């Protein structure tokens, strides 16, 4: 049998072992950084981090999209470039009361409602949470703040509130219109009886007819109010405004002050 040769494996020196360990360690850290960035960039909330002096150290993708150039600015320059308001009162917030400013003093904030006007003039609403960051020694090293864009939710809430107000207004209008219609029915009945009693008195007949026209106009208005309260489709009709006003002129002149002049063009 022939001699078999085996490769000689020399042991690694400590320096080489250390270098290999460091290489694997650096590679692991890099992978973790990439993974961490990918995770934070997939979050819908905007996340901003600052050092103890308020200088930006990190911003995820949502923060860059939400704030634009503000995300790259130190905290103390925000008031110069953006409008910062309390969303509930719409009053401008002092710099020291900003969530990130308070976090940089060691205070935490949750659920702050803000209205932010970007440098380009566009506005959005956000809920903000801020917390201070500390080193292992307990030293304040900075702050992290998250923003959730709630502009769409706020608009939807305002539209719902407006719809509820209109519904309440419709119910109120319907109740008033019904009561007013009862009053008009009594007036019309009384005026019709009065019209029969005045007989041939032309002047009295003239005033009664004016009152009847006014009452009928009030009836038309009541019908429109009821249609609004029931959300029915209105049926607009073309009228001659001058003729309508001309018929009410004597009544209007007696109702307004003598210092007011009433001219109706035909």
Record keyword descriptors for this entry:
disordered N terminus; 266 residues; alpha+beta; six-stranded antiparallel beta sheet
Outline the secondary-structure elements.
Layout: H1 14-41, E1 46-51, E2 56-59, H2 61-67, H3 78-81, E3 83-86, H4 99-103, E4 109-117, E5 123-134, E6 140-149, H5 151-198, H6 202-229, H7 241-255
Helix pairs in contact: 5-6, 6-7
Please explain how this structure is put together.
51% of the residues lie in helices and 17% in strands. Mean pLDDT is 80; it is low at 1-21. Helix 5 runs antiparallel to helix 6 and helix 6 crosses helix 7 (241-255). Strand 1 and strand 2 form a beta hairpin. The chain has helices spanning 14-41, 61-67, 78-81, 99-103, 151-198, 202-229, 241-255; strands at 46-51, 56-59, 83-86, 109-117, 123-134, 140-149. The longest helix is centred in the middle third of the chain and has 48 residues, at 151-198. The chain starts with 13 loop residues before the first helix and ends in an 11-residue tail after the last helix. It is α+β, with helices and mostly antiparallel strands and 266 residues long.
